[in-house]
Amino acid sequence: MSLLTNIDLINRARQIIPGGVNSPVRAFSAVNSEPLFIDKAFGPYIQDVHGRIYVDYVGSWGPMVNGHAHPTVIAKTKQALTKGLSFGASTSIEIELAEFIQSKMPSLEMIRMVNSGTEATMSAIRLARGFTGRNKILKFNGNYHGHSDALLVKAGSGAMTLGISGSAGVPESMVSDTLTANFNDFAAVEQLFHAAGKDLACVIVEPIAGNMNFVLPKPGFLHQLRKLCDQYNTLLIFDEVMTGFRVHPGGAQSLYNITPDLTTLGKVIGGGLPVGAFGGRREIMQQLAPIGPVYQAGTLSGNPIAMTAGLANLEVLFSDNNFQKMCDNCAALIKTIKKYITKFKLDANTDFAGGMFGISFNNDSDNAKFISFFHSMLANGVYLAPSAYEAGFISNAHDSETLALSSKALELSMAKIAH
Predict the structure, then answer these.
(1) Domain of residue 256, residue span
(2) Comparing C-alpha atoms, which of 37, 28, 27 is closest to residue 4?
(3) Residue ending a domain, choose from 269, 299, 317
(4) Inter-residue contact 120 to 278 (CB < 8 Å)
């Protein structure tokens, strides 16, 4: 345990790191608080620098399907470390991980490894533009696909609103070909396609939205997208960075029985190390360099340590009924949440798919209820995402003990915000 306090670390961090964090949501500004500094994690728990232990429902924002520091994942990663950290050359483990992914997601006929979800979505869109010879893309308000320029777009009004940059430093020219529509609003999408479909290279969508809390697609919405894309020869990209190997063994595309043209992945396939991937139809993927004209490269792409950790993470997930354990744990948690929502007559919603879930409080425009709920849960030993707009994640390591601790925290916290 560090001898430095959380405040010491916050003050030091803010002197050298913008905002004191290397990713904005860690700043805890959305919950009017100071960030936590974590010392270590194990199984379903994380431990802060003061030695306080919390049941963890963030799971490093998704990768930890088997809990933290799983002994098999750690052992295989340590073994790989002894061979060297990076070679800048091809290794057999890249092929093994790609083959494993393809065995679960057959739509990925070919796969390219990258280093992050942002890199995966950015590259998939470039590939879609190169393959179709078109420039415009469609994304959905509230869907997050990383921080590449073309995807940092604010919500617009109306089906044909062109993108407006959502970040300083992004010229309007970089997002002028990004069209937006509301998630689950098929009428708006249809109108947009009617006006601009022949110019659309791709539609990119989170099949289950995880960055505006947790929002399932309306029945038929994704199938309608697939049909429109086929009609206009537009590529359909599923961003499964969150949902991949979390909501179904074959991702959301298997859950909803839809075949996208391209898929982006991350999180689970890295086991906690920085990894992303994109893949899809062979004829599209063969447009990538070195065999095609669409350039994409990365010094650390396919890094052997990250590939080893990711493959080990997946192998553990799909052994010993672990995937089903994760799903069962999530179902049990949601049942408990619903029980207390009903008991305390809260105007709230909760839902889940596989090992991914959300809790939202209605009529909470200033997020006051969520902020109170978050801090009460934290005080009672449960760590949730420090934002009302993020999904939650569970693992197969969340056993009856952690679920009992969570139930007690939920009862106390929901009773508090009910009054």
Answers:
(1) 71-317
(2) 37
(3) 317
(4) yes
